[in-house]
Every structure is written in structure tokens, then in C-alpha cells.
Amino acid sequence: MASACTLVVLSTFLLFLPPAVSVAATAPEPRTLDRVVVTANRIEQLQSGIGDSVTVIEPDEIRSSQRTMVADLLAATPGVVVSRNGGFGAVTSVRIRGAETDQTVVLIDGVKLNDPSSVGGGYNFGHLLANDDARIEILRGPQSTLWGSQAIGGVVNIVTSVPEGPLSGSLSAEGGARGTAALNARAEAGGERFAWRIGGNYLTTDGISSFDKRFGGSEKDGYRNVGFNVRGLLKLSAAASAELRSTWSKGRAEFDGFPPPAYGLADTGEYGYHEELVAYAGLNLTALDGRLSNRFGFAYTDTDREDFDPSNPYPKTFDATGRNERWEYQGTLLLNERWDAVFGLESETSQLETISAPSDFDPNPVPMKNDVRLDSAYAQLSTTALKTLTLTAGLRYDDHETFGDSTTGRAALAWSMTPTTLVRASYGEGFKAPTLYQLFSDYGNEALAAEKAEGWDAGIEQRLLDGTLVVSATYFSRDTNNMIDFVSCYGNADPRCVTRPFGFYDNLQKTTADGVELGLAAQLGERLRFTANYTSLDAQNATRSDANFGRALARRPKQTANASLSYAWPIGLTTTVAVQHAGRSFDDPANTIVLDDYTLVDLRATYAVTRTLEIFGRLENAFDEKYQTAAGYGSIGRGLFAGIRQAF
Questions:
Q1: Of 21, 74, 469, 641, whose CB count within 10 A is highest?
Q2: Which tens digit of pLDDT belongs to each residue from 518-536?
Q3: Please, how many CA atoms are within 13 Å of residue 50, restricted to the half-sphere of its CB?
Q4: Handedness of CA 287, 51, 134, 250 (dihedral sign)
């Protein structure tokens, strides 16, 4: 019956999509190629002059997608795969071009979010909510020259806009399936001397069972998240300005664990808190008639995590705090009309404090506290020596407190071969410093070296039919060495097992990743728009001494694809059909546990009641596809949602 209802809904929705020949003539112009990008070269630059592979999700695209979580927005972009251990709030991993999730740098306005207290130092996207007052830039490929440790797969940067103009803002509210409700509000203003923004958001949902209901999961695991953000900019003089900004959020997520006696995934009453504070203070100075820009800043990230199991005699089962403090200087110098330089210094201190779960054997465990420092210097030159050719090259030097130094480089070109043909190519190196847990825990190894990667890509972008059709193709390749993995001491005669009887971390693994990314954007008339992307990925274990040599890396589908078809009606209504497909993958390194392929269909509609008021709704996973992105864990099924948004 449910399937029949879904077919009726989809059929009715599709009736609202007229053929291309019937489109009217009052739709917005198609988006141009030249978006402004910050992340690629750490300065604002037109995308046509960037040789790296970058995808930009603009605020209006975030708004029209109606997505709640940033991870779901990323999953619709080329080269990105997302896995989630259940519903909202569950551990969520983002992998770019087959790299590990902890080999991605995640930023808000350039401030690093990665958690130093996690085992691999990665970022859990499970608590990052989407806001339509920012754009998201996804930079693919090794990028450590400008972004330092962990930028092996790429960089995700959430870039908020600078407040400007008279007082304005927005308020939105939505609700729907599984007891879900969401609120989002912001206000901002900007004048000659001072600009400010303040915002907040709230999300609550009854959720789904983290333990897949097809295997017996029955109790729902709910989620709640509240967050605030503030930003202020003060113009001190014609050549100086100061900035303060901060983001805070706290989430409470219920999840399922591995209870005795079977110690397999099952329904439990466990829950956890995830609190995050991000802050930045900066001073901006210009000199040499504006040709030299200097930015002095201090960035701070604090991530607190606590887990609880009410059925345990010692309810608090996990407690960890990770902090990252970074002093930084960045300079930008316009040498002449064709040459410019970006250079900087950074000193970053990562701190970890964690405590083991109490037990009858150790009711008062001693916390583990450690920190490590990383000092860095980087420089990059860019030139448009030819009007149609932009060349970029850079170097970075890092000095780490334990593993020593590392030097990484990059080079890129963007060539406008014709007014409608753009060729891009880039080479980049990446490194990932061993984490505090890998260095100093009970399984730590202070002799660990950094993980290293080399990668390159080359692609072409072609505009056809007066720019109404844009097609692109990119080939990429990456080799990663010295990857850190856990070594068990069971039956192991390694002398390091004397001091680490349960095991230790070591530089063991090598992986490769190669693939193709294809893109298409078409304005079919003035009201109908179609976009699509496809990624073919071959990510393998390349460690010849490993039993899994040649096998596919876990949770990396060989094929992913996304498509969206939207029609803007003359009456102010926009309707959209969006499709997401992921091919078959494996959940384990030995490739014995299969994750089946799946296809999700979403239906969306937005109606502009007035110039500032709109109502919107969507049917997610319209065919109620049953799928898994992590073995044993449930996925979000069909759900109907509706909301209202008011701007002022």
C-alpha cells in the first residue's frame, strides 16, 4: 500500500513538469561559470582562473535543496561519498576521492573544525547543520601546501558572507516526519564602520533506530541540536579593520551499542552529547596603496564529547575534549598586474584530554592529557603571464614536535583555450600528522611518521549553446603512503608488544585512488534546468604485504551519480525532482560484507507567496528505499516535510 501511494505521489508531481517546448520567458538567467572561490588559493579568485577541482554550493542552492545536514549537501557533489551510522546525529563520515574521512580538512571561514581528541583526528559531520547564509566550497585533491595537515583528500570550507546594508534577516520553520521540527533565524546589518550578524538554529527529531529495523531494531534514537553564531567587523581606519566571530552548537544523540553477552550491534538506551565552540579574532592591515594585505589572527576550536549508558553501573562511558589553538599570519601581495603572492606563518597547538570508562577494576581512572605543536610557513605565486593562462605554484614547510619536518608543494594551471573551453590541471602533495591518540594513548607510538600523499588531476570544461549547456570531465589519481594502522599484539613477537601488550599504531598502509568525474548543467529553455554529475572511483589497498592487497577500500562505491530537474513556474512555484545513486561497496577491508547499491528520489516544491515570504515542502526518499551506508545501521526512510520562510 505504501509503495502504491508513493507511485501516485510521484506521478502527480511529475505532471507538474511540462515539456521543454512549453516553457515561458520569465525565468532567471542561468548561473555563470565564474563564481568567486576563496578556498583554492586562500584569497578571493574567479573560478575560471583556478586550476584545482572545486565545487561551490551557493546559499540559494542550499535553500532550494531544503537539506537539513551539510553532509547531505556534500553527498550530491562529484567525488564525495557519505556514510552514516543511523539517522541525524549519528557518526557521519565524508570521504573525498576515496580518501579516509580523517584526511579531509573541515573549516568555517578558514577555522579548522577537525577534532584532535578523535582517534584519527577527523571531523564528525553528524552535528553540522546547513544554513542558507553561507556557501560551501569543496576543494578536491591533496592540498596541504596551503591548508596543512590532513588535507589529503581535500578541503571543505563553509564561507559565511560579510554582513552589509541596512538591517535584514530571515526566519524559517519546518516540521514533518518522525516528529521533526527545525527553526532557523538570523539578523544582520553593515555600515561604513561596523557590520554584525547574529543567528541561531534548533533541530529536534524522534529519529530512527540506529540498529537497522530489518535486523530487529525497534526503539527510535532521537536527536536534538541547538546552535548560535555571531560575527562582528569594525573598520578602524582606511587601512585597518578588526573582526570577531564565533559559532557554538550542542547536540544530544541517542544511539545503539554492542551490549553483552553477544557484543553485537543491538538496541540500547545509550546517548551522547557533542558540544563545539569555534572562535576567531583577527586584525587586517593594508599597505603599499592597498597592494599588500596582512591578516593576523587567532583561531580556537573546542570539542567536548560525552557518552552515557543508563544500564551501566558507571553510566558515563566516554569523556573526551579536543582543543586546537592556532596563531596565524597571512599576507597577500600584488606584485604587478600579472603577478601576485600569498604567504603565511602558522603555529598550531592541538590538545587532548580523555578519560577511560570507570569499572569495578578501576572506578577512578586517571585522565590522559597531551598536546603537540606544529609550526608552519607557506608561500605561493600566481601569474597570468598570458591573458588566457593562469599558473600557480607553492611550497610549505612544517615542523612537528614528534615526527620532525615535512615539505609539500603544489602547482596548477587554468587555460582558457577558447572563449568557451577551459582546461584545468593540478598537482598537489598532502600529509597528515599522527594524532595525539595515535602518539600517546595506551596503543600509542611516538616514533610514528606522517602519512604522505601525491595526487594530480586534469580536466576540461566546455560551454555550448551560448552557455546554456556546460559539460565537464576530470581525471584524478592519488597515491598515499605511510598510512597509520593498528597492529595487534596477539601472537605477535614484535618487541614493541612488550610495552604495548594489546597492540600499537604503526605506519603500514599504502592506498591508491583513481577515477573520473563528469558534470553537466543545462538550461532547457528559460524555466527548466537540469544538472547531473557522475563519479567513477577505483580506491584500493596497495600494501603488498597485507592480506587485503588489491581489494577495494571500505565504504567507497565504485560509481556514484546525482541528478536534478527543476521547473520555475510563472506563478512563483518551483518544483524539483532530485535523484541520488550509489553503487555497490564493501563494509570491511576484506570485502566480505557487501553494501548493496541504492537509488534515492526526492521531490521538492517552493512557492513564493510574496517577495519576502515563501512556503516549501519535500518528500524525501519517495520510494522508501531500504539501504545501508554502514553495515548493520539503519537509514532514513520516506518522509514528508513542510515549512515557511520569511525574510525582512
A1: 74
A2: 999 999 999 999 999 999 9
A3: 22
A4: negative
